[in-house]
Design brief:
By secondary structure, this protein is α/β, with parallel strands linked by helices. It has a single domain, classed as Rossmann fold (3-Layer(aba) Sandwich), CATH 3.40.50. It is built from 10 helices and 5 strands; from the N terminus they run βαβαααβαβααααβα. The longest helix has 19 residues.
Length: 222
């Protein structure tokens, strides 16, 4: 995987603008820090809708325009360009609203894996209202690498079993993703200690999310 992607897609995709400025929380942290685990836990809580960039791409119809573009980049081991990533996100969110899976009036949106750099922050800014940035921190890099190796075995993820790919993702995160923490107003940033048991991490996250839900949303219908 490299950051210098080739211009595989020559046609400009045009999608309708989103109807809302979605009230959102951005989940940031390096590979292996536990974002996926926490995202799955959060997605089961009423009033929270979790979007993982990985799930978003995996749900693409391979025969659609965006699905074919993603396939072209993925098969070449390249990162999907920022504008295509955000357009994919736009379509994904629109579909979830239409399917009534996500209700912007009652659900707090958790963004996991997007935005992945400052360019995506700026592209997303017209569409989301960021209420909090949760910065998951684990100081021991090797611990996170070990978690990724375990995930590769458990979930049969070939990309996670490739040491070069794993370390590339870490380098990309440090160079491009982590700087978005300083891009947001610091009063929005909440540090989450991820070097502990998952239940403790979830407790820290909920202590940040629950006040937002109470202040900004009506209770969801059960």
């Amino acid at each position: 995987m490299r950051a210098d992607n080739p211009p595989i897609c020559k046609e400009k995709l045009v999608l309708p603008e989103l109807e809302h400025s979605y009230r959102s929380v951005v989940l940031v942290g390096p590979p292996g820090v536990g974002k996926g685990t926490q995202g799955k836990l959060l997605s089961k809580i009423p009033g929270i809708f979790h979007i993982s960039s990985g799930d978003m791409f995996r749900e693409l119809d391979v025969n659609s325009d965006l699905g074919q573009i993603f396939h072209d980049y993925a098969t070449h081991g390249k990162l999907v360009p920022d504008d295509i990533t955000v357009k994919t996100w736009q379509r994904y969110v629109n579909n979830k609203v239409k399917q009534k899976v996500y209700n912007p009036e009652t659900d707090l949106l958790i963004l996991d894996g997007i935005p992945r750099n400052i360019e995506q922050v700026e592209l997303l800014s017209p569409h989301i209202r960021v209420l909090k940035v949760l910065y998951m921190v684990c100081e021991d890099r090797e611990v996170m690498f070990e978690r990724i190796r375990g995930r590769a075995i458990k979930e049969h993820r070939n990309d996670d079993s490739d040491e070069f790919v794993v370390r590339y993702r870490w380098d990309y995160y440090k160079q491009f993703t982590e700087p978005i923490i300083d891009h947001y107003p610091q009063e929005l940033v909440r540090i989450i200690d991820a070097d502990t048991i998952p239940a403790d991490v979830l407790n820290q996250i909920l202590s940040a999310l629950v006040p937002i839900q109470k202040e900004c949303f009506s209770p969801p219908k059960m």
